[in-house]
Amino acid sequence: MTKQEFLSIVKTYLTLDLSDSPYHSIDYWYPLQSIKTAIPVVVFDLWKMYDDDNGIKQIETVLSSLSIDTATVIQDQDFNTEPKAVNLKALLYEADADGYNFPWYVESYYYDSSKQWMIYTSHEFTITFAGEKLVCAAKKIIDHKYLIE
């Protein structure tokens, strides 16, 4: 699958009405579940990771291992899907007004200009890594006790 095909698929899911979607799952949501066979993905329980002092540090280590600092984010909230730049490592440790970390309240898609990877967070408090190098690093670095299969 080419980068353009991947981005086209992601874009169609960003505007998808999920009320009757077959891609809705209790484990993790669209779009990464439906394209799992074409693009490597791995999903972790973000809630458990924040409960453990070492969990979030493992995500930071994954990002550092691939020199990922900043990303573009698109959040699927209030029909506002305008992309904006964020510092991912700083975002891991920032809390919102309610004290929750790493935007869990809304479906968020993080990627860089290479379009070789994507990080997806859901309001079910999961984090999904997509793309060969990112998935490989996450599987190697992040403790499997956080893994959702």
Topology:
Layout (H helix, E strand, L loop, with lengths): L2 H12 L26 E5 H6 L3 H11 L4 E7 L7 E4 H6 L13 E5 L6 E4 L4 E5 L1 H10 L5 E2 L1
Antiparallel strand pairs: 1-6, 1-7, 2-3, 2-4, 4-5, 5-6
Quickly list its features:
globular; alpha+beta; seven-stranded antiparallel beta sheet; 149 residues; 21% strand
Structure, described:
The protein has helices spanning about 5-15, 45-50, 55-65, 90-95, 130-140; strands at about 40-45, 70-75, 85, 105-110, 120, 125-130, 145-149. It has one domain (about 5-149). The chain is α+β, with helices and mostly antiparallel strands. It has 5 helices and 7 strands. Residues about 15-30 have low confidence and may be disordered.
